[in-house]
Every structure is written in structure tokens, then in C-alpha cells.
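[Meeting: bench + compute handoff]

Bench side (C.D.) handed over the final construct sequence. Compute side (W.E.) agreed to return the predicted structure before the next meeting so the bench team could plan truncations. Sequence as handed over:
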Amino acid sequence: MSDKKHDESVAEDPSKIEQIYEDQIHSHDAVFGEITGEGWLGTAALMMKTQIGLGVLSIPVAFDTLGLVPGVIILCAIAAITTWSDYVIGVFKLRHRDVYGIGDAGGLMFGNAGRYLFGFAFCLYWVFVAGSGMLSISISLNAVSTHGACTAIFVAVAAIVGFLLSSIQTLARISWVAWVGLFCILTSIFIVTVAVGVQDRPSAAPQTGVWVSDYKIVASPSFSDAIAAVSSIVFAYAGTPAFFSIVSEMREPRHYTRSLIICQTVVTSVYLAIGCVVYYYCGSYVASPALGSAGPTMKKISYGFALPGLIASTMLVIHLPAKYIFIRMLQGSRHLTANTVVHWVGWLGCTLGITVVAYIIASAIPVFNNLVSLIGALLGTMMSFQPMGCMWLYDHWSQGKIDKSPRWILMVCWSIFVVVSGTFLMVAGTYGSVVSIINSYNESGGSAAWSCADNSNST
């Protein structure tokens, strides 16, 4: 009898039906069934680990190119734009529950062409970042072991470890790796930051005579150098496209904004701290990545602490495109969530395929760092700026037909600005990266594929 009364009360109150429906959605993963995640705090860790990775280590060098004051201003501006972009992702997901990744959002806005374009760009971008992650792990292993083995072996080890960890199926189950990685990468960054402050001079500076840091308040770079530096700062915030996948697997998506605020506050604070302090003390003698700025001993210590963080970053950037492809392959099939042979072969095939392609890219392509900068400028910017401006316009454009309020007009102008500025950075950053690749070839002729040479000496 009590069950009947409950059913009748639910039928009379539509809000209760909606609440039950939302509770079912929030506790169910569209990919792998029941969500057992730890909620918004674990989500914040995943977000921070997606953001704080390879990009932070190039910020002091970007400040050297731009100057301290322009560097800080540009970093804060990019932080503001990407924070808004990240916020729009959470709102868009709550409005459109069937959207899992940025490809789905592209399909909703632009049809199949948008779905395939954004989906392909998403996968290609993260595959190249995964290759960069494998390379950074090999640099770390070389630094810690004093080139204890052939670099090609270290890259292969990075690929194997990345494949094994990324094959853990849900983000909730790998959030503990994100916590460990986040702690380790932050520790390594702060070790270097403190070390350059207490040492007499950076390791690359002249070791005799009086030395004073030659940091610049305002620099005068060429256009190509300046825009390449700006692109490297954009790359430091280019975890944005991954946030679709992260919010889709939250137990409570309505807490997404809380996680986002924590993430962006910590990330921006860390970026400003390491960028300003390391560049102030090192000047033009700052290393890239920045972990090599404080001398051989501190280099070993900082890379030793950073290694788990670099592994966690590589794990995440293999997992995300693999899951996107997996969903596209088995969507609408019982094998998507059922514990079947097809399910496991499909899932492991996706993670292995992404790993192998990323490994080949990391090992075989000459001037790899510049090429990754090119992909970051071409694809990272495109997925962190333009789609989010379009998403806001898609959801709110019809409101202007009813009431063109000042707020609506302001937000339309802002959304258009985000799209236009992102397009400019994409085109100009690509140009700057191409110039850097050409200059690198002219100076050194590129690097050998599957080389055994110590790749930590240049950092």
C-alpha cells in the first residue's frame, strides 16, 4: 500500500520524476554502467592533471621570449578565456545529456561534418600529446639514470607503462593515479622553483665572475617567436577538450563548476609561480623544460619526482582518445557495457592502437618538439576556443529573437570574440611553429629516428 501511495505522489509531482531521472543519470556512466567515482574532488584532480603536465615546463621560456609583464598578462588572459570555455562545457553537458565528447557537440551544432571533424581533431591532438608524453618520460629516465640505457628503449618502456595504465576502463578508477601524479609534478616544480632561488646562478649561466639575472620586464621578440610563445601558454591550458569526457563520468555533473574553479585556481597559481620565480632568477639561461634549470643534481631530483606525474599525464592522454574511439565503435551495441569478449578486445585494441601510433610518432618524427607545438597550435587552440563560443551561441541564439537584453548582446559579442581570437591564434601559432621547424632544420638538420642519444642533455 505504501508503494502505491509513493507511486501516486510521484505521478502527481513531475519534479519528483525529473529528480529520480536525474539521480539515475548521475549514477550511471553512459559508457561502462554504474559510476563509482569519488565525486567533485576526484574530478578536480583529473582536471588538474590534464592541465598541469608538459605545458607548465615551457612557461618560463615563454616569459623569456615575451618579457615578464606581457607574459603574465597573456597568461591571465588565456586563463580567463579557457576557464569560461571549460564552464561552457559543463553547462552544455547538462543541457545535452547525450553528448559524451567534443565530437558529439560538433555533430549537434554542425551535423555529421562537425562530428567527424571535431572527433578526428580530438583524437589526433591527444595522440600527438601522448607521443610527447612518452618522450618526456624518456627524458626523465635519462636524467635520473645518467643515460643508463638507449633512449629508444626508454621510449618503449614509456609506451608499455602508458598502455597498461590507460587500459583501466573508467576515469573514476584511475583518479588515484591522477592524485599521485599531480602531487609528484607539483613537488618537482616547486623543488626547481626553490632551487633556482637559493643557488648563486642557473646551471647554463657563466660559472665565473659576477652574475646578475638578465630577465626582461618587456621583451622585443619577432612576430613568429612571440606567437610561438603565446601558443605554448595556450598549450598549457589545452586540457579543455578532455573536460567533456571527465564531466560525462562524474557521479554528480552539477558539481562540475566547483571542480573547475578549484582546478583553474590551482593551475593558474602554479603557472604564475613557476613562470615568474624561475624566469626572475634564471633570465635568458632558463632551460626548456624548466626542470633542468638548477644544475645536474637538482635535475636528477626534480625529474625523479616528476616521473610519476609524467606517467599519469601520458596515461590520461592515451585513455581519452581510446575511449572516444571505443564509444564510436560500439555505440548502440550491448557490447559497450557488457563484459563480453568483443567488449574487451575492442577496448584493449583501442588503447593499444593509440599507444602504438603515439610511440611511432615519438620515436620516428624528427624535430618532434616543434612538431608537437605545431599540432598544439593547429588543434589544441581550435578545440579550446572556437567550439565553446559556438556552443554558447547554439544554446542561446534563439533567446535574442524574444528579448535582446544587454546581457545577451554582451555574451554574443564575447562568444564571437572567443571564436575570432582562437582562429587568429590557431593560424598565427601554426605559422610560428612552421618557422621554428624550418629554423631547426636549417641549424641542425633534425634528429635521427629511434635514436639512442641522450635526449636529456638539451633540457
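W.E. noted at the follow-up: The beta strands are 28-29, 33-34. C.D. will use this when planning the next construct.
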